[in-house]
């Protein structure tokens, strides 16, 4: 029987302008659905695991449409609560070259922000699970959502389930001060911490010296210092950070650094031409989780995560539809893009 991975968070409707159109010139939007934890549930299901997604959506056709969207990719949605006022929305304008992508949120009052712990039976939800995953986005939505996240993490830890969190700081949702207060509390129950250099600084107060993402420069020694501090403070089993060298909105260098308290491992770097970068961090997280939960060594799990997320950059939408075979082929060096017949 495949390993069970449970994720908790918000799913939103995504309305994006066609192609590379700007908001002010577009007459229509393309519709899809996604969200950090939903993206992870879809990806691990795609790799053959039992992905379970937990959230709350309104009891209307839009809430059902969001559920149907991820259910078609094999995600178990049986524990999703219904109720509340609305489904959150985000609008996306995809950038190119020197023009950055733009995101506008319309998620205030979303159902997941108005939750009660009593709506979820975590003893049942987590029964037989090998892994529980969430992100820093969910507790940022409301105090109720933060309490739900903490309850889920505590329940998972009590059952001996490996827990992970992707720091995912969103400045439009809460302040640095509030993020540090809440995330420092949640991280007491986390085994695997994932996040980029900006997230580590804003949510936990650790900064990688000598790194400036706007210049496309990385200083691995700075990251190593931060990882050691994070390990010392929270006792994480693994710490991982994606490393993005942003040459432009269209071309990025992409790799990751991971640490287990003894060894630092820097993965292969991919030069990616971006089709859609939304969900790229989630695709790394899901790949890294897949590797660890299937007993890959840390270095191999990291390489799997980076290869999976490099492929995600080439796929429109929030979700990573790269197959297990495609990820493994890329890990072996097959990145030519030649037509497969």
What features would you describe in this structure?
This protein has 341 residues and is of the alpha/beta class. Helix content is 35%, strand content 21%. The chain is built from eleven helices and 15 strands. It has helices at residues 36-46, 61-71, 122-125, 137-141, 143-158, 176-186, 197-204, 220-234, 280-293, 298-312, 324-331; strands spanning 4-8, 12-16, 30-34, 50-54, 56-57, 81-82, 89-93, 102-106, 131-135, 162-166, 192-194, 238-246, 251-259, 264-266, 270-273. The strands form three sheets. Strands 1, 4, 9, 10, 11, 12, 13, 14 and 15 form a nine-stranded mixed beta sheet that branches. The protein has a four-stranded mixed beta sheet with strand order 3-2-7-8. A two-stranded parallel sheet has the order 5-6. α1 (36-46) crosses α9 (280-293) and α9 (280-293) packs antiparallel against α10. It is globular and about 50 Å long.
Summary of the model, kept short:
The chain has 11 helices and 15 strands. With 341 residues, it is of the alpha/beta class. The strands form 3 sheets. Strands 1, 4, 9, 10, 11, 12, 13, 14 and 15 form a 9-stranded mixed β-sheet that branches. A 4-stranded mixed β-sheet has the order 3-2-7-8. The chain has a two-stranded parallel ribbon with strand order 5-6.
Number of E-type strands: 15
Helix/strand order, N-terminal first: EEEHEEHEEEHEHHEHEHHEEEEHHH
| CA-based gyration radius | 19 Å
Terminal-residue CA separation: 32 Å
Outline: globular
Mean pLDDT: 93
Q: What is the makeup of the main sheet?
A: 9 strands, mixed
**Number of helical segments with 4 or more residues:** 11
Q: Work out the strand percent.
A: 15-25%
Q: Helices and strands: which structural class?
A: alpha/beta
Q: Work out the helicity level.
A: 25-40%
Return residue spans where pLDDT drops below 50 for at least 5 consecutive residues: none
């Amino acid at each position: 029987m495949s390993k069970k991975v449970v994720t908790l968070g918000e799913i939103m409707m995504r309305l994006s302008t066609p192609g590379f159109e700007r908001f002010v010139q577009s007459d229509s939007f393309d519709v899809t659905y996604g969200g950090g934890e939903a993206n992870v549930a879809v990806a691990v299901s795609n790799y053959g695991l039992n992905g379970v997604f937990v959230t709350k959506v309104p009891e209307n056709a839009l809430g059902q449409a969001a559920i149907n969207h991820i259910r078609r990719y094999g995600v178990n949605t049986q524990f999703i609560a219904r109720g509340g006022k609305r489904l959150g929305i985000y609008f996306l304008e995809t950038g190119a070259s020197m023009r950055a992508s733009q995101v506008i949120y319309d998620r205030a009052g979303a159902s997941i922000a108005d939750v009660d712990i009593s709506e979820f039976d975590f003893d049942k939800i987590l029964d037989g699970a090998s892994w529980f995953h969430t992100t820093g986005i969910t507790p940022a939505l409301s105090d109720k959502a933060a309490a739900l996240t903490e309850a889920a993490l505590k329940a998972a830890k009590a059952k001996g389930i490996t827990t992970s969190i992707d720091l995912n700081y969103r400045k439009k949702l809460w302040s640095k001060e509030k993020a540090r207060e809440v995330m420092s509390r949640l991280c007491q129950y986390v085994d695997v911490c994932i996040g980029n250099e900006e997230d580590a600084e804003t949510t936990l107060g650790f900064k990688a010296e000598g790194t400036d993402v706007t210049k496309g420069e990385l200083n691995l020694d700075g990251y190593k210092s931060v990882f050691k501090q994070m390990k010392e403070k929270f006792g994480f089993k693994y710490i991982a950070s994606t490393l993005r060298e942003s040459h432009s909105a269209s071309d990025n260098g992409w790799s990751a650094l991971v640490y287990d308290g003894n060894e630092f491992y820097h993965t292969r770097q991919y030069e990616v031409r971006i089709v859609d970068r939304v969900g790229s961090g989630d695709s790394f997280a899901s790949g890294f989780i897949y590797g660890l939960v299937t007993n890959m060594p840390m270095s191999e799990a990291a390489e799997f995560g980076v290869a999976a997320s490099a492929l995600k950059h080439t796929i429109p939408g929030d979700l990573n539809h790269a197959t297990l075979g495609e990820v493994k082929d890329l890990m072996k060096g097959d990145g030519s893009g030649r037509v497969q017949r």
